[in-house]
Structure formats: C-alpha cells, structure tokens
Amino acid sequence: MKHPSEPSEEPRLPAPRGPLSTAVEDHLRGTGPLPSDEEIAAAAVYGDDLQLALYLCYELHYRGFAGVAPELEWDPELLRVRGALERRFLAALRADARRHDRLDDALAGILVEPVDGTGVSHFLRDKGELWHLREYAAQRSLYHLKEADPHAWVLPRLWGRAKAAMAAVEFDEYGGGRAERVHARLFAALMTDLGLDTTYGRYLDAAPAELLVTVNQMSLFGLHRSLRGALVGHFATVEITSSPGSRRLAEAMRRTGAGPAAVHFYDEHVEADAVHEQVVRQDVIGGLLEVEPHLEADIAFGVDATVFVEDRLGDRLLADWNAGRSSLRTPLAQEFTHIS
Questions:
Q1: What are the helix (H) ranges across the chain?
Q2: Around Cβ 322, how many Cβ atoms within 10 Å?
Q3: What letter does residue 281 receive in the DSSP assignment?
Q4: What is the DSSP letter of 114?
Q5: Which pLDDT belongs to residue 95?
Q6: How far, in Å, CA of 317 to CA of 253, rounded?
Q7: Which is the most buried residue in 74, 217, 320, 323, by most CB within 10 A?
C-alpha cells in the first residue's frame, strides 16, 4: 500500500510571486519567455520572487511538477536563467554570511550550546502552542519530505574515507534499508499527527521567502561540484545542531500532546544525529581534508552560510509568533482533529 508521503503524481505548480517566478512558470508551461538578466539583477536576492523562481528551477531535479515536461530539467535556456539566479544568490551568501577561513573557528560557534538559548526550538519547547508546531512542521516539510536528498548529490564528489562515512550517514537517513524508517516517511507521520496534509509540496504557497532560502541553499550546494566543500559544511552544521534542537522539539511535542509519531520523529533525531555528528566531523570532514586540504575555507563557508540563513528564518518565525500572528503567507486550513 502506498504511503501518503509517496506521491502518485507530481506536485502542482505554485502561485507565482512576481515577474521572475511568473516568467519561469510560463516557460515551464510553454506559454511565455524567461526573465531577462536585467529583471534578475533588479530583484531582491532574498525576496519571494527570486527565491521562488530558483526553487522552481531546482525542483525539476527532484520530483518536478504536474504538467511540466521532464525534459525541461536540462533545458539550456532555463539552465542559463538558473545560473544567473544562482550567481546572485551565491554572491549574496558570500557577502552576508559571517566568514571564517579556518574551519575550527566556524565550528566553534555551534559546538557549544548557549546557557539561555532564545531560538525557535527554545520557544517551541517553553511556550509553543499547537498552532506554532503546525506552522513549523508545514514549513519544514519542504525539506523533510525529501530529507537527505540534496546531500546525496555530494557522494559522487567524494572518495575514500569521506565517501564511505557520508554514505553510512545517508543510509541511516534513508531508513537503513527499511522503508518504514526513512526519515521523510517519519516526518509525514509527524504531519499526520499534527493534522497536516502530507502531499509533497503542499505548503509551498504558504512558506515565506526565508524558508525557501534554506531549501535553495541545500540545492545550490548539492548541485555544484565546485561547492562540495560548502555542502559538507552545511551537512556538518545540520548534524551538530540537530540533536539538542531535536530534544527540545520532542519536549514541545510531548508537552502539547501532539501525538506519538510527532514525538518519535524528533526522538529519532536526538539519538541518530548525536552519532552522525561524530561521523561527519571525524570521517567526512576529516577524510575530505586529508585529500583536499584546500577546501577548508569552503567547508567553513558552508557552516557560516547555514547559520546565517537559519538565523534569518528563526528571526522571521519568532518576530511573527511573539507578535501573536501567523508566520505563513497563507493560514493553514483548520483540519486539525487529532486532539480534542
């Protein structure tokens, strides 16, 4: 029997958010020209329009969209536009993310948990309500329903100890050979507990630009061999920060009575990612630097850029929630019935 997170058809195209995303969608439908370089240069780099246009280009390498020809994944003109979008995005990340040339310096800021943390997971643990948890899960579904896929692209670009260790971690992310333990499926079960639709891409229209930035960064790093060091830095940041953050989110799910699958997803990450952190730091990073020591600054950039985009998202969520308003572009449907 097909699991609800495993689609029988591609997701629908979302509503465009400006001239860039409108033009990309028109091209995907075969009804209009792609945006010009001048239009791309004029758009806000972290804004809804540019980030959605880039997301549309990247999604063709995952599951695509309903009614869009699969051959457009490698359409030369679309790839040219994607390249222009990527150059603006990457230049902004390099300019705006705090820079460290030494990896140890970049990692120092995330290896120690602050005594009085004020991030999203702290908020959700201490005072989050079910509606906060639902919004958080809806947004994170844009990644978690394809969890580990962007990182898998780095495997052909590694070898030796780094490749073996990365493959071992990815094997865990994909359930260790057991379909029911694939992390994307576990997240779909979490969404079910929270009364959310598990359809892939369902909440793309609702997600703000800050969330699109976090997913686009993974695809940017994953799709370019030249950014393999940054992708490893991103992955290391995720694994290092995941275990303590997941512990707080599991506590939030328990406190609010969100449901057993919701709790289980984060409990699973507390244990798994504590192990993954050591493997990534010692063997993936260590193995990569053994053979390509010149990538140290790129790995450090991946760490810095990930912290930067996650902090931007956290600031957006907390600003909205502390003001008592939704963090979503469109409100969630009131289909939640799990808890009376």
A1: 19-29, 37-42, 48-59, 76-96, 103-111, 120-127, 130-144, 149-152, 160-173, 183-193, 209-223, 228-256, 260-279, 286-291, 296-322
A2: 10
A3: I
A4: -
A5: 97
A6: 18
A7: 217
Residue 301 near residue 230 (C-beta atoms within 8 A): yes
Nearest to 18 by CA among 8, 29, 7, 26: 26
Q: What is the DSSP letter of 19?
A: H
Structural tokens at position 120: 């999203």
C-alpha dihedral sign at 109, 115, 121, 123: negative
Residue 202 pLDDT more than 90? Answer: yes
Locus of tokens 């140890």:
104
CB 189 within 8 A of CB 147: no
Please tell me the distance from the alpha carbon of residue 226 to that of residue 216, in angstroms, as a whole number: 16
Tokens found for residue 108: 């120092």
Q: What is the DSSP letter of 157?
A: G
Packing angle between helix 228-256 and helix 209-223, nearest 10 degrees? 140
User: If you ran DSSP here, which 8-state letter would residue 227 be given?
Assistant: G
Band of residue 274 on the pLDDT scale cut at 50, 70, 90: confident
CB contact set of 309 (below 8 Å; sequence gap of 6+): 93, 97, 210, 213, 214, 217
pLDDT at 6: 56
Contacts of 11 (CB under 8 A, 6+ apart): 59, 63, 65, 66, 199, 200, 201, 202, 204
- Cα separation, 184 vs 284, in Å, equals 23
d(CA 328, CA 134): 11
Q: What is the dihedral of CA 203, 173, 132, 201, to 10 degrees?
A: 0
pTM above 0.90, yes or no: yes
CA neighbours closer than 13 Å in the CB half-sphere of residue 289: 18
